[in-house]
Amino acid sequence: MLTIYINDLELEVEEGSTILEASKKMGIKIPTICFHDRLTPPGLCRQCVVEVEGARVLMPSCITKVREGMKIKTDSERVVRARRTILEMLSSSTDLSESPDLLEQMKTYKAEDGRFENSSKRDFKVKDDNPFYMRDYSKCILCERCVQVCSADIQFSYALTTSGRGYNKRITTFYDRSLPETSCVFCGNCVAVCPTNALIASNEYNLKTEGAEK
Amino acid sequence: MENAEKKQLNRFLDNLKVKERTNLLPALLKAQDLYGYIPEDIAEKIGKTLNVPIADIYGVIEFYSLLYSKPTAETVIRVCTSPLCSLKGADKIKQALFEKLNVEDGIPSTDGRFMVESVQCLGLCDQAPAVMVNNRAVCNIDDDSIDLLINGGGPGSKNNYYSDNPVITKRFGKIDPLSIDDFIKEGGFKGFFHALTFTKDELIYAVKSSGLKGRGGAGYPTGLKEQGAVAVEGRETYVICNADESEPGTFKDRIMLSSDPYSVLEGILITAYIVGAKRGYIYIRGEYSEVHDIFTKVIENATKAGYLGENIQGSGLSFDLEIRSGAGAYICGEETALFESIEGKRGYPRNKPPFPIESGLFGKPTIINNVETFSYLAQVISDKKRVVLTQGGSPSGTKLFCLSGDLVRPGMYELPFGTKLSEVINDWAGGVPNGEIGSIILGGASGSFVPEKYWDIPLDDQSLRAVGLALGSGVIMVFNKDRDILKILSDITGFFKHESCGKCYPCQQGTQYQNEIITRLGKGICYKDDSEKLEDIGLTMKDASLCGLGQTASSAVLSAMKIWPDLFEISKGEVE
User: In the CATH hierarchy, which fold is given to the domain comprising A2-75?
Assistant: First the structure.
């Protein structure tokens, strides 16, 4: 067992635990976006960052292992600024209307919806190329979970990939082929792990759209 | 015709010793070279041969700027639009080319003969403005040379270097860079043979006490790195030379590797000897095809002369070195992104820890150094006196400085640490032509503007750190009084927007919004909370980004906001 300090409270934790696990044990909530407890944590959203004494930058709590005597602040000014700004940037680029968890986080961190100008807001036509599910990439936050489950984390279908770079990164298929032309087996795993309804079962999408029309 | 290309590609794939994913980038570059782009069926063929899922291949093609999934043209003209070329009229050149060739940015002409594309830094900042015509650099372009470059002419690139106390540039110009005999005659491999007379521990002690630190920008002590890599005994270890410089203002790898390439090889060999590595790579940025050709020759000659391969010079050390070419991605200069690239993946940086000395390339301990570091290491070991002379802290040795911008003599300078910034600019580089210094950036696009009160500061780690500045890789960009700071910042932030890999949110989104705000400010449109926004974006990137690119992508903006706050405030008078 190791002794660590989270927000000045002393805690005994098992060696090998992450800061996120240790905090959870103590009842301290750290927000996450890309993290999924069944998948390899990619550590890319940086929403779960915390301040570790002695570290130059903030550390992602989902993948940072505890060390003896570690002093951690989960809600310092730097941490809160980073979390709020990440949410504000996301909400300026992406349609978060069907991401209840993110909307909740925005309330918690008093993030201003669409704070940044959106001359290049991510706006894509819904892709409807198979009977099972739709792809509405205007809602995609690029957490890459779908690519993970389609690849080595679960299904080994390798139908999906990340393409492009920087702000123009996107999720697609081999040469942007339609899904039936790829190795997709329509297992539904990607739809299950999508946190924003960017991937959605076609019948659910149709019900939703019909509902909106009424 | 098409068959000839297919035959060539098949031959290339058949000849690959390892038919695995690590050869994905070489195969794609080959296909790109043969077809001018990577057709779908060719991507599938490569996938089958190397056993890579085809979706991943598309992801890789779309990651690297020099790989295309759609046809390009017989002649591709890449116009550098990075800060320094931009200042010297890149936009005018681009417009002239668009008009003359009747094309739009990045779209091939209807007859398939020409394509003109805006690109980021080509590493020719001392000869701005510059373009690449296919693999050929054309520099110092003026109105007259535009027609020349279209027709395959125009002034090529030069190696501009200066020093009066050369240590690692002492052989420059005296030797034929390709001749291993010339190198040996001028004291080459002395460090390597010297190293063989010591134990590994003694060598590590010598490197540590020399004070040598990484010259790529991060400045990690080289001896400590070696110690860490050796500690993992009995495991395969790799040595990698990082020659993927792509930072605006940096061109020292290009000059080093084309003027004294064997000195870099010598440093690599010494490192391999210290850490017990049998295999290594030199990763050269894709835009440096001339350097690539030079080093191919260097490896050939060194192998013939018994400086690579089995039992090198009877030392018992066996070591093979392979060249890997980048494909247009600044991020691959980040060490872990570089590993991913050699492994045949998108150049995404990895979360650290684990650090390369524990788990690097292919998950094995890896020691990776910059070109200048390796060359300097060979000097440190070859000269007993220097090892004693240099103690701790900033070495009393020399450093390569890349000077660019509004200067009489831009170029690469090897100067003692502690030389004053003003002396480097005015005495060495000849100062600003017909004018005065307006602003200085130290450390490249990821560096900071230097407040005027520090223009006389000695360039060494201690002095700079005391005032919150950093030398980085040794870039000094100088701008005259007429230069618009917001234009410079717009180009710098544009560079980061283009080069962000997009993996982590702070940088993926922050580089975009930072550039949007700065560019708007440059047009004279200022909103009341712009500086708050820029600060939130900048500090979030600095604090929360996954790698060094994102963590420094706002340095220039944040430093400018401190020096010229009015530029970012509504008081500017152009309110909206």
Answer: Ubiquitin-like (UB roll) (3.10.20)
